[in-house]
Amino acid sequence: MKLFLSVLALGAAAAVFAAPPNVILIVTDDQGYGDLACHGNAMIRTPNLDRLHARSVRFTDFHVDPTCSPTRAALLTGRYSTRAGAWHTVMGRSILFREEITLPEIFAANGYRNGIFGKWHLGDNYPSRPQDRGFHHAVIHGGGGIGQTPDHWGNDYFDDHYLVNGEWRPFTGYCTDVFFNEAMRFIEASRDRPFFVYLPTNVPHSPYRVPERYQRHYLERGVPQPMAAFYGMIENLDENVGRLLDWLKQSGLEDNTIVMFMTDNGTAAGAGRGKEDATGWTGFNAGMRGTKGTAYEGGHRVPFFIRWPAGGIGGGRDVARLTAHFDVLPTLVELCGLKFTAKNSLDGRSLVPLIKNPGAEWLERTLFVHVQREEIPPKWRASAVLRERWRLQNGAELYDLRADPAQARDVAARHPEVVTALRADYEAWWSSLEPAFTNYGYIVIGSPRENPTLITCMDWHASTVREIPWDQSQVNAMPAVNGWWMLDVERAGKYTFTLRHKPAAANFSLQASTARVRLGAVEATSPVREGATSITLTLDLPKGPARLDTTLSDEATGESRSAFLVEIARHDP
């Protein structure tokens, strides 16, 4: 039965407690299902996550998108990531559509105080920043990872600068320690009302940096790099989870706090690739095929634990039904008794019946996963159609997960009727996504909420992802590549555009003799003074959406590239 759009009568069966529950949602970055000792990994040390696992309801067939931004978009909107605007991690296609309603906005409308600590990766500019989408307090890095282009220049996981409600501030310590410290500080300051804490860590995403003491144990046991550092990052994370759980108990908040733990895609470095090392240890992927960025099971099946002592949720029970990230929003709406009228149809379904009774009646549905790395998603690219028993990969390969969880034997020829049915489900789902392809996650300029606005090449639209310098190391290499941004001018008027290759603090001279800016039909050009680190051009702009193109041309070398950073300011008369 095709159920790609399920609408929940939200809040109708909400549990009633003396006080609304607090909520802590922990999401790690690039940690796979097999990167936990409690899931059978004999090498990694995760005692605190194992403790949470032992006391939680665990969903063992829980799925997300195979990459970062898409999972976050679906998690926070209750809708397929492509509908919400985030089907890529760069190229302006990791920015939430502004018409989407997010989970923190729902919590805020119901009196909760909301904080985010770590990785956002759904837009670095208004109206897509966390403080624009329902969070009262935000401590985050820029872009999709520490050290990426929108991040503070020179951040390296240690003693970094992070954005605190939109302003860069220095912090001391390792990134994960800082984010958990700030989360606990926020909780302590929010005890007089219910709170929602979103803790999406940047670890164990690359680059694999962690204090040496956390990786030493793995190196001594023969775990190769970068896996040893990857495991060390998870061990440090586990230590912080333990600190948080112990603190909740000591502070009297444990009983009425819902704690959820999940990851955002399959493992990035926890499963071996290539030849075995001398010890024979090549990692552990829980018997699954594929890793991060693939549509096979190992790319998108992840842990999901939920515990709430006051609500009777815990006890170490497993739920083996097919579930997904977009189910979290309707689940929390029901558990917390939130008032919410959906503006858009939800794809998610409340998991409360299964949480209460793993054997509850659960209407089978078809779910969909795809990996998109293009401006406009191509049909059938790196895709999976999921039912309880079946996986249709890339529209052609069929796997029976009951008999073959490792997806080693393609049985499409033996079950053509299943292939036909799942292909039809995909076709209907794809048709429902197509309106999103011509929409954009616009960056708004000229708003008092963000003026000036600093945009970076991570959000360029381009013909291919290879043209996007999304990391600071790529910007340092100065590639001669070009892209454009999709902007929306909130108020007509005079705007200045300051073009740079690198941030002002880098003091890097422009490799150009001529600069050009064009927004829609309005254009300006100017010669570039030798040795200048920036060039500013002025445009009189009408209100409305338009494409921004910038060009920095060097007559001496013949090279031309778009500005990697542009600061845009509206000037009131």
Draw up the topology in text.
Elements: E1 22-28, H1 47-54, E2 57-59, E3 62-63, H2 68-77, H3 81-84, H4 103-109, E4 113-118, E5 137-140, E6 161-164, E7 167-170, H5 175-189, E8 195-200, H6 212-220, H7 227-250, E9 257-263, H8 297-300, E10 301-302, E11 304-307, E12 317-319, E13 323-324, H9 328-335, H10 352-356, E14 367-370, E15 383-386, E16 390-393, E17 397-400, H11 416-433, E18 443-445, E19 453-456, H12 472-476, E20 484-489, E21 493-500, E22 514-519, E23 522-527, E24 535-541, E25 544-553, E26 560-561, E27 565-571
Parallel strand pairs: 1-8, 1-9, 2-12, 3-13, 4-5, 4-8, 18-20
Antiparallel strand pairs: 2-11, 3-10, 5-6, 6-7, 9-11, 14-15, 15-16, 16-17, 19-27, 20-25, 21-24, 21-27, 22-23, 22-25, 25-26
CATH H level of the largest domain: which superfamily? Alkaline Phosphatase, subunit A
Q: Bin the helical content.
A: 10-25%
Counting helices, strands and paired strands, the structural category is alpha+beta
- What is the multimeric organization of the chains shown? single chain
Name the CATH class of the largest domain. Alpha Beta
* Count of helix runs: 12
Gross geometry: globular
Taking the alpha carbons of the first and last residues, their distance comes to 60 Å
Strand arrangement in the largest pleated sheet: 7-6-5-4-8-1-9-11-2-12
Uncertain parts: 1-17
Q: Summarize the biggest pleated sheet.
A: 10 strands, mixed
| Integer average pLDDT | 94
Q: What does the radius of gyration come to?
A: 24 Å
Judging by the overall fold, what is the CATH architecture of the largest domain? 3-Layer(aba) Sandwich
Number of domains: 3
Number of strands: 27
| Proportion of strand residues | 15-25%
CATH topology value of the largest domain? Alkaline Phosphatase, subunit A
